[in-house]
Specification:
By secondary structure, the chain is an alpha/beta fold. Helices cover 30% and strands 14% of the residues. It has three helices and three strands; from the N terminus they run βαββαα.
Amino acid sequence: MNILILNPILYTAERNIIPNVDSIKDTMIYNMCIGFVALGHNITLCAAEEFRPQKREDYDFDVHFFRSDWTHFFPPSLLPFSKDLLHYIKKFHKDFALRSGSTRRAIIRILIVSSQVKCLQFIL
């Protein structure tokens, strides 16, 4: 089964400061993905670009890092938001099994809303 794991925050940022790391292989989510791979599943992990390790490394499954948008309103250390991730889900959602009907409907709603929003205006 193809499984998409959306986990933008790979490790805890202390005081809203995302630490620079050399690897993500010591994270719980990475180890969970390895467990799914061991069971024969195809895994794709999506994370925020700010959590990309400093050193390039090879993974046992697909890992995509998406840049965060609107960081003033969605701080990457707390709640990363990525338009590119929404576009990725919209483009590839049929490649992944969505087991829950409510999850499928929620994702479809997000994609419809995101495709209809042309401009967001924030009044400070």
